[in-house]
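Open question from group meeting: does this chain pack into something compact, or does most of it stay loose? Before anyone orders reagents, we agreed to write out a predicted structure and look at it together. Recording both the input and the output here so the notebook holds the full record.
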Amino acid sequence: VNTKLVFLFVGGDPVRKGFVKVIKALEKSRINNKAILLAVGFDPNKYSLPSATNTKIKFTGKVDDEMLLKLYQISDFLILPSYYDPFGLVVLEAMATETIPIISNTVGASEIVANGIEGFVFKNDDELIEILNSLTTLDIDTMRSKAKAKAMQFSWLNIARKLIEIIRKDIKRT
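Structure tokens returned:
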């Protein structure tokens, strides 16, 4: 069975978000022939991206929230090797739809992802390729449900509850 793995890259600035790093890592991995990469949020013609590649890439350009939700839902993995990203909400959004994040340790959301449990956090290109090579032996369903459970901890309702709790404790002290 030749099962395809669908990777999602979301970002308005593919240079800062490391899009070329994604292509290079997929090219060097053993899963490249099984990978489909959906690139969302930018016009590839505005950037100097590799033109010759064996990786199957579908550029969508900018999409509305409804389409982005559908893309999360059909993707297996969100891949975000940003060079700098304070806290990409796309990571939580992806996890909430059971899309497994593969993110660099320079993405702020890496602080909430338990590496190898709810997703993957890598430090360098070699670690990224290692993760990509391991994906065919992964229990995807278990990791998907753990990713969703982690994202739900950060729902707006839970954040509001935590804020109210902090305010109440502060009021009691005064």
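Observations to bring back to the group:
The first strand starts at residue 5 and ends at 10.
The chain has a mean pLDDT of 91.
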